[in-house]
Amino acid sequence: MKQMIMHGHRELLQTAVLEDGRLTQFYMERSENSGLVGNVYKGRVVNVLPGMQAAFVDIGLSKNAFLYIDDLLHPHLEKQPAQKPAIQQLVRVGQELIVQVMKEPLGGKGARVTTHYSLPGRWLVYMPVAGYVGVSKKVSTEGERIRLRSIGEKLLLHEEGIIMRTAAEGETEQALSADVNQLRERWRDIAERAAEASSPAELHREAGLMRRVVRDAMTLDFDEIWIDDASRYEEAKRLLGEMMPQLERKLQLYERSGVKPLFEAYGVTEQANAAFQRRIRLASGGLLIWEETEALTVIDVNTGKYTGDSDLEATIFKTNLEAADEIARLLAVRDVGGIIIIDFIDMEDEPNRERIMARMIESAKRDRTKCAVLGWTRLGLLEITRKKARENAVQQLTEKCEHCGGIGKKSVDIG
What we know:
This protein folds into four domains: 2-34 and 208-269, 2-Layer Sandwich (Nucleotidyltransferase, domain 5), CATH 3.30.420; 40-116, CATH 2.40.50.140; 119-195; 278-397, no CATH class. Helices cover 28% and strands 27% of the residues. It has nine helices and 21 strands. The strands form four sheets. Strands 16-17-18-19-21-20 form a six-stranded mixed beta sheet, covered by helices on one side. A hairpin with a 4-residue loop joins strand 4 (40-49) and strand 5. Helix 3 crosses helix 4 and helix 7 (312-333) runs parallel beside helix 8. The longest helix is centred in the middle third of the chain and has 24 residues, at 173-196.
């Protein structure tokens, strides 16, 4: 049973995905701060840094956005120069640029922007300047990949690019063509606004959480979709009718009428509270210690109370295997991005280490967010990277402690 549970309260919308009752994904967003990723701006270059091969661009936010040289070059690697030019050959102070936000401002950093523009639709991603067709690696068969690529090549005009999403699998050429035409028209509107606007100016705002959830996360394999906010229920119903009419009948409004709140009724509150702890207990008694910093996330695996029932290596392997599955789930629930280092319990048998890594690779393939398992470091730690674009739920649900400054320890006087 796969369920989507959506809780709306004033400006806040929280969305949970349950598979057989287990929390596997969690999103939250405040409507007054609907996120910047995907927004398109007309900006002005305020500083060029040759030593960093980067520029700072004023897009009208409190902090200037960061533009790296790779995001100025042609999106198609084959069309980039053999030798990377100096950034001052590409942009100058005072120059106006159309840029798109690819990473939210995080910590003390401004947003990261790109000139590799992309507009996501229901079935595909449209790129006004790219010159290639890509197909999601998660499309199940090679025959379907070939079919989608062929359709994409027919739909391209001039230097356009298209990436066929996993959702495009089995869709008709007519549906895919309609998606392209709608996105192409949206880009024309953006270009027209850019021609008239004075920088800095917002040219396009990416869809809010409700539209993104319907567009990106709702699939035909959902058995139930519940929402407890009447106005958002109507919005979701309208969006499903527009994009996925097959799911309309599965959408239901949850009315409390004296019963438990929606998240409590489906066990989301309890599971989410457990998932966002620093110490997370495994079912066997093992333990995960979870530390998130601005630079990376470190996860330590311990046997905890689990002592096993045979030899030490078997106990360690079983704990590590259980930890691998739980970590993969929690990376999605907590929406962790950036560098992730996992300190599994040391294993003597090399085949066991390979099985743990294979388990993580398999889990990464199922992750909706791009996730790559890089392998074991020389110190025996497993290194993973996961795409980081928005502020995750932990950052939204917590604030830095005024007493310890966020280090988790209260300072004492010295001397």
